[in-house]
Amino acid sequence: MHIWVDADACPNPIKEILYRVAVRVSVPLTLVANQALYPPRSQWIRAVQVPAGFDVADNHIVQAVSAGDLVVTADIPLAAEVIERGALVVSPRGEELTASNIRPRLNMRDFLDQMRSSGEVTGGPPPLSNADRGAFANAVDRIVTKRMRADGG
Asked: What's this model's pTM, rounded to 2 decimal places?
């Protein structure tokens, strides 16, 4: 198992949770962004800076991900792509995205995108709450524990 993070928009408290998980369970964690990141020094944590550009970080993750890896992203199209490759996905709010629930999320995202492009103001997501952080930590712990057991580790 490898944890991949769509790090450009990933909140810092979520990254901090992931740093602790990677070190605690000795699982590789890679943050991918088009800006420089400075994660803590660890053999388990690395940052990859990709060139600026539309979906460059997403494309890097899609190319690198393997079945059974975990991807942390709020990007619904990226989630759909990596799910097709057999990866597990959790949003920074702790929602597990799967083959059975990604299609309605993709449809809603496309609908809201159409509304915004027609001038409708739809607002953004609410700020990350303590409950969101807890839900994320629990989801990641559940996924990593289950995956590590399946891998015999």
From this structure: 0.88
